[in-house]
Amino acid sequence: MKHLKRISIAVLSSLAMLATASCNRCASSSEAAGSTATNYIKPTRVFCADSAYSYIRDQVKFGPRVSGSEGNSACQKYIIDALKADSAVVTVQSAEVKAFNGDRLPICNILGSFNPECNNRILLLAHYDTRPWSDNETDPAKVPVPVPGANDGASGVAVLLEIARQLRNNPPQNIGVDMLFVDAEDYGTSEGFSTNDESWCLGTQYWIRHTPYTEENKPRYCVVLDMVGGINARFHREYYSDQIASGVVDKIWSVAERSGFADRFVNSTGGNIIDCHVYINRIGIPAIDIIESRNEETRSFPPTWHRNNDNIQNIDKSSLNAVGQTVLNLIQLEK
Q1: Is the Cβ–Cβ distance between 291 and 17 less than 8 Å?
Q2: What is the average per-residue pLDDT within 147-158?
Q3: 3-class DSSP state for residue 266?
Q4: Which of 124, 108, 271 is nearest to 202 (CA)?
Q5: Which of 228, 247, 246, 198 is nearest to 301 (CA)?
Q6: Which of 45, 143, 192, 204 has the fewest C-beta atoms under 10 angstroms from its C-beta?
């Protein structure tokens, strides 16, 4: 994903239009605001951070999961097998996309559906590919090395797979839950910043052009999980999420507070990120990004972002737990 420095008037205008449309489908700010001990959520499903951690460890063992690589193919099979074991209905979308540098990338998007016959749905999304280069390294010798991707890639996948395991044991009744694992998210250019940069999230861009949804079963909203396992991670309200789907942000940050994670879900604006949610919004699904975008040390992404040390040693189970339990509680409250 990419951290933006400038926001164009055209982008702000389109965001405002989408925000107006999305408010009718999500909780308003006043409805979601405010939390006391009396409305603490008692979970019906309990997230297991140890299990999520093991899912990260397994992915990292495949090596870098760059689109088209052996590690990427191994990770695809791992995700598909895990979803099927958890009784999800699995749909695989294979294609080829062209990267900014001319590379042709074979991609595979994986959709796991729970309670697929229900038209009242939500969508959860994470990318499983990893960055081909460590372009945030200061040592030139380290730049060509692919990122291990324990946080940037594997953490979001791991949280979704643990949620899938919990849904197997306690299936959703009044809501359908889709989990989309996208490829080629992290193959974008590192040159400059632009609000119309289309070089990122190639798998998601392909998916929105070939979405399986109809107007009848289109999800009410989408939650993207990206870099959710950093050390002592805190998640601010990502800028575009707030502009496009503030009602969804309000709802999730309220659930986090009522789940005991107000210290992790900070109720103030974070960075403006080009990530999968920006593209999902283009097909009329209000989408938000849970991502660490205002790290205390870097004032941006976590210190391991696009570096060689994005490894299992820099994963924090308490961060995984805060995000995973919040999303499980979100599912619990949906009707």
Answers
A1: no
A2: 98
A3: strand
A4: 108
A5: 228
A6: 192
Cα(201)–Cα(205) distance, integer angstroms: 6
Tell me the helix, strand and coil percentages in the chain, rounded to 5.
40, 15, 45
Q: How confident is the model at residue 2 (pLDDT cuts 50, 70, 90)?
A: low
Q: What is the dihedral of CA 300, 123, 323, 295, to 10 degrees?
A: 0
DSSP 65-76: --TTSHHHHHHH
Three-state secondary structure call for residue 239: helix
Using the structure block, give the residue that is written with the tokens 């509680």.
Answer: 329
CB 221 within 8 A of CB 175: no
**Would you tell me how many other CB atoms lie within 10 Å of the CB of residue 39?**
10
Residues 6+ apart with CB under 8 A from 34: 254
Helices 9-23 and 239-258, packing angle to 10 deg = 40
Burial profile 218-252: b = 16 or more Cβ within 10 angstroms, e = fewer: ebbbbbbbbbbbbbebbbbbbbbbbbbbbbbbbbb
Across the chain, where does the E strand assignment appear?
2-3, 89-98, 104-114, 121-127, 176-182, 222-226, 235-237, 265-269, 273-274, 287-291
Per-residue CA distances from 51 to 48, 164, 230, 335 (Å): 5, 11, 16, 27
> pLDDT grade, residue 20 (50/70/90)?
very low
Question: The whole model's pTM is what?
Answer: 0.90
99, burial (CB in 10 Å: exposed 0-12, middle 13-18, buried 19+): middle
